[in-house]
Design goal:
15% strand, 7 strands, Rossmann fold, 45% helix, alpha/beta
Length: 246
């Protein structure tokens, strides 16, 4: 399918592996010039991914828990047409054992960083009087909550859903679409341990009775980045195999 994003420049955070890598590959295959982001410790994998994607793809590193690094990264980028806030962490701890530091760090990376990048992106588009597309990666946990020790993650993603709707309302008159994608369980490095321990438990919660491949989620993200979704904003598209039905 032609999503008509050829020639657009897209920034995808958390793109060294997993869903971010799949999103970057899909956007690149559709003709976008992709800039892949991740931690500096993943620089080599970013380089490999960018070379594989081709079409002028590049990479950049930053620790998204640091406002200073986010702003420094943005200053090194050129004009961005598409922003995909995919980077996130998924630590495990029940509330009774969760530290304040862990809770705050999860919110910093999973909620505050997307806010900062959205702000920088929107201000750039407004200053240039240009339209744009933002896709924020959330989770079914934003709506279901968590029973497996991820309350901080669920709280951050729920906040990101509400922020997505609020920002979409603010910038819709300027032709900037802001949407979210809520995956369920995917076969990614982040979920590998959880799936190895209790895949059957997750499958029992998924009506389609299988775990998603990152490429399936990436296709939905690409749709929201393209012109066929120009009349969609403030929405959250569920890609959960039925784990989340609304």
């Amino acid at each position: 399918m032609d999503y008509k994003i050829k020639g657009k420049t897209a920034l995808v955070t958390g793109a060294a592996d997993g869903c971010g890598k799949a999103i970057a590959e899909k956007l690149g295959a559709e003709g976008a010039k992709v800039i892949l982001h991740d931690l500096d410790s993943k620089r080599y994998q970013l380089k490999v991914n960018a070379e594989k994607i081709g079409n002028g793809a590049g990479y950049i590193t930053a620790d998204l828990s640091s406002t200073e690094q986010i702003e420094s990264m943005w200053a090194r980028l050129g004009e961005i047409d598409i922003l995909v806030n995919n980077a996130g962490i998924w630590p495990t701890a029940y509330v009774t054992e969760m530290t304040s530091e862990s809770f705050k760090n999860t919110l910093d990376i999973d909620l505050v960083a997307p806010f900062l990048l959205c702000k920088l992106f929107v201000n750039q588009r407004l200053s240039n009087a240009k339209k744009g597309k933002i896709v924020n990666m959330v989770s079914q946990a934003a709506f279901h909550g968590s029973t497996s020790g991820h309350a901080h993650y669920a709280a951050a993603k729920a906040g990101l859903v509400a922020f997505t709707v609020s920002l979409a309302r603010e910038v819709a008159p300027n032709g900037i679409n802001v949407n979210a994608v809520a995956p369920g369980m995917m076969r990614t490095p982040m979920n590998k341990s959880a799936l190895s321990e209790r895949e059957e438990q997750y499958l029992e919660r998924i009506p389609l009775r299988r775990i998603a491949e990152p490429s399936e989620v990436a296709s939905v993200v690409a749709f929201l980045c393209g012109c066929e979704s120009d009349y969609i904003t403030g929405a959250t598209l569920d890609v959960t195999g039925g784990m989340l039905m609304r």
